[in-house]
Design a protein that fits this description.
Layout (H helix, E strand, L loop, with lengths): L8 H7 L13 H4 L6 H12 L4 H14 L36 H8 L22 H15 L7
Length: 156
Amino acid sequence: MIMAYCDMTNVEFWGGLRSSNEGYVSIPEECKKVQSRGLVHDRLIRNWQDHVVPPEMLAEMHLQLLALHDADSKHVPPPIGGAYQDWCDEPYGCAVHFWNRGHKSWELLERMVHPIHDVPCYVCGEAYSTNQTWVEGALETADIILEKQFGIPEFY
């Protein structure tokens, strides 16, 4: 899985690859196969439906991944699907994130990286760290996931 949170000129680049709804990638088969029906399954399907990505955007993400890792398509398969959200679109108009007043980020942080216990989905990024808006925050949550969820020890 790749997630990219962009701002300023990077948003303009990815936004330029938006197109009409025609030709959008459908919900990946892996999402349709989620065994447990109910709130989590419905939310997953709705998120894919509401944030579909045009094929041009998926192709560009794949090309950039290949270039970044100096790899070829034999070693990096094409994406199975994608999601895109421009937070400047309505109804948001813009977005920024902060911990709610009175909440202790250093206490909630370790629970936030795996918010739904029985779903193998993890939150990794600066938004739910103690270093919001900094790459160090993304590294902080990555370390927590590797150590606490997968038992991979620190190596620094």
